[in-house]
Specification:
Number of domains: 1
Number of helices: 3
Order of helices and strands: EHEEHEHEEEEEE
Strand content: 35-45%
Helix content: 10-25%
Shape: globular
Strand order of the largest sheet: 7-6-5-4-2-3-9-10
CATH class: Alpha Beta
Distance between the termini: 36 Å
Length: 167
């Protein structure tokens, strides 16, 4: 059996809050892990503005990967919400994850379902479009971890992405 995935309780609560704030649309974001053990949650924009699908705008996606890589980190979790269905990867999610698979394991896929009250939060490992559920454990916030909201301004061809701390 796979090892459980431990995420800070504060991050789980923030992903649920993000999901609720973006209703009727799905929300999306990532959690990065860094060598010294700190984590960073990035609340992204859903460029689709849809209750059925999500995508992170190209400017924010480029910013995320560049910033995380420059800081010596890696994407640990991709998260998004389902507003009307369970917290299980949809066929659209499976196809999306299949397109992005590379030589390394795909990051964990976390889903928040608002179809249930209280919301359901579940985490999955995706491989070749197949989802395997893992145990999610709420843990402590590692030292120097943080949460930010991304915002994009400027022209579409030359976006400026900024971070605002979430406290």
């Amino acid at each position: 059996m796979a090892e459980p995935v431990t995420l800070p309780r504060e991050f789980i609560d923030q992903m649920v809050a993000h999901s609720r704030e973006d209703v009727p649309n799905e929300c999306c974001g990532v959690i990065a892990r860094f060598a010294e053990g700190r984590l960073k949650l990035y609340r992204a924009t859903n460029a689709e503005a849809s209750s059925y699908r999500f995508s992170i705008p190209p400017g924010e996606l480029h910013y995320l990967y560049r910033t995380i890589e420059e800081d010596g980190g890696e994407v640990l979790v991709v998260y998004h919400s389902h507003t009307m269905s369970e917290a299980r990867p949809s066929p659209t999610d499976a196809n999306f994850s299949r397109m992005l698979e590379g030589p390394d394991d795909w990051p964990y896929w976390l889903l928040v379902s608002l179809a249930e009250d209280p919301p359901s939060v579940r985490i999955w490992q995706m491989s070749d479009g197949e989802a395997s559920e893992l145990e999610l454990v709420a843990g402590d916030l590692p030292a120097d971890s943080s949460m930010v909201q991304l915002a994009t301004s400027g022209e579409e061809r030359k976006p400026v992405v900024s971070e605002t701390a979430i406290t």
